[in-house]
Amino acid sequence: MRTIPRPLVLLAETLVIVAGALLVFLMLLTVADVGGRAFADSSILGTVEISTLLMVAIAFLGLAAAEIHNRHVSVELVEAYLPPVVRLILAGVRTVLITLTGIVISWGLLGVLTSAFERGETTSGILRLATWPMKGILLVSFVLFFVVAIWNAINEFLDMKEGKVVEDDQLLAVQQAIDDADDITDTVVAHRTEEKK
């Protein structure tokens, strides 16, 4: 499998760090709000609004990194048993479908973002926070995710076209992990045997 361009990886990893920092901030805000309610009989104004908006960023900023590191769920029940030419056709169809889906979703999110910005859309709570920044984060997250997903799909198609079995790398990694586990097991068993003597 061809590698993803380094700037794209760095951007995705940076967004994961931002999501992690926002999660820590959200936890601290929640603890402070609950502590204020329990001990000082007052809460932090707008905690629910802030939390709601932050959850959007936290949930979606890591999409591209998850795709880069192959962390999304994928199920292959039939494809692995199909002839290479059929798998190549399916890889091509998959690439086209991912591209079309990415265009439709990104276009729709751009419309939602533009509409929210033009109308000055805000939350309905006390703080009346603008919603467009989080809708912008949602758009950027999905665009970046689809760029990575399309990149992966195209490269998978090209690898198959060149006759490279995509799973070879994965099988080698699994076999290496099994071999490493066997080595560790042998070492532990040998160590315990020596202790008993």
List keywords for this structure.
0% strand; mainly alpha; 197 residues; 6 helices; TRAP transporter small permease; 2 domains; transmembrane helix
Poorly predicted segments: none
Overall strand count? 0
- End-to-end span in angstroms? 50 Å
Based on secondary structure, the structural category is mainly alpha
Main location: membrane
Membrane topology: Multi-pass membrane protein
Domain Tripartite ATP-independent periplasmic transporters DctQ component: 26-156
Organism: Flaviflexus ciconiae
Description:
Helices cover 76% and strands 0% of the residues. With 197 residues, the protein is mainly alpha-helical. The protein has 2 domains: 6-165, no CATH class; 167-197. It is flat and about 65 Å long. The termini are far apart. Belongs to the TRAP transporter small permease family. It comes from Flaviflexus ciconiae. Keywords: Cell inner membrane, Cell membrane, Membrane, Transmembrane, Transmembrane helix, Transport.
Task: Tell me the layout of helices and strands.
Blueprint: H1 6-39, H2 47-60, H3 63-68, H4 84-119, H5 132-161, H6 167-196
Helix pairs in contact: 1-2, 2-5, 4-5
Quick summary of this structure?
Belongs to the TRAP transporter small permease family. The protein contains six helices and no strands.
